[in-house]
Amino acid sequence: MRLLVVGAGATGGYFGGRLAAAGRDVTFLIRPKRVAEIARNGFVIVDPKGETRIEPKIATADTLGQSYDLVLMSVKAYSLQAAMDDIAPAISPDTLILPVLNGLKHFDVLSERFGADKVIGSFCKINARLDDHGRIIQMSPLHELVYGEHDGSRSPRIEAIDAFFKGAGFDARLSEDIGRELWEKWVLLASLGAATCLMRGTVGDIVARQGGRAFIEALLDEVTAVATAHGKAPDPGYLEATRQLLTAAGSPMTASMYRDLIKGLPVENDEIIDDLLARAASVGVNTPYLHLAAIHLGVYAARRRSE
């Protein structure tokens, strides 16, 4: 199997890098700025055990001239349209696309462009970042890639993907209920993102204030109600673990959207918050706290665009 990884940032670079280090056939489609950074400093993954240096196969949009069996889409949602244009020459009738973006909106966008039959249900869980030298820093042991057919079947193609990912230095898991698991991750992302962005602080900062814990729990209940109304109620065990995670005293946890916000960078408010708000309205679920977060982030995004 020949894999094209779109993006060599903290997420795509990590999973693609691990696959390349394990001997898989991996090519990275990246922008010239990242190409230059890798040329200067190398392609490096840093974990608690040390460094892994990789000699990656690299392509840019103007040099991509062949098709691939699988495309791992790992870009920010606001870069998706440009990324789809870039990968178009690499998409053959048999190419499959495995996106690890946030929310669910990207599945519709990719399906409309390339066909729903090509887009595999997928997401990842990882805590990683790029440092000032472009090295990929794994910040916790969590490094899971999850995938599955939308109908829950164990098709030959999904089993081939599973075999390709297994044993490559991260946790690869074939899900038989990828739709519910995608909603579960969205419940966590939206709750954490809305809370930390709206209150401009960590989980620990919020729960330390009077009414802070109740606010986060009410926000989580809102988002959970949306998932449930769409027939994707989170597993009770997952929901309880999420509640504990989001209300832990002293927790330094923040959302990546919050970290982008305080740096003045673009944020994925449309995909993580606004799309969820629209889906809440479509099933008649009232979400006042989520609505406040949407207004807050919308004002930020509009101001940023105008500057």
What does this structure look like?
The chain is α/β, with parallel strands linked by helices and 307 residues long. Helices cover 48% and strands 19% of the residues. α3 (80-87) links the parallel β6 and β7 (96-99). α6 (178-199) runs antiparallel to α8 and α11 runs antiparallel to α12 (288-306). It is globular, with a radius of gyration of 19 Å. It starts with a strand and ends with a helix.
Question: Can you give me a brief rundown of this structure?
Answer:
The protein has 12 helices and 10 strands. With 307 residues, it is of the alpha/beta class. The protein has a 5-stranded parallel sheet with strand order 5-2-1-6-7, with helices on both faces. Strands 3, 4, 8, 9 and 10 form a 5-stranded mixed sheet that branches.
Helix and strand arrangement:
Layout (H helix, E strand, L loop, with lengths): L1 E5 L3 H12 L3 E5 L2 H10 L1 E5 L2 E5 L2 E3 L10 E4 L6 H8 L8 E4 L5 H10 L6 E10 L5 E13 L7 H10 L5 E4 L3 H22 L3 H5 L4 H18 L6 H11 L9 H7 L6 H14 L5 H19 L1
Parallel strand pairs: 1-2, 1-6, 2-5, 3-9, 6-7, 9-10
Antiparallel strand pairs: 3-4, 8-9
Helix pairs in contact: 6-8, 6-9, 6-12, 11-12
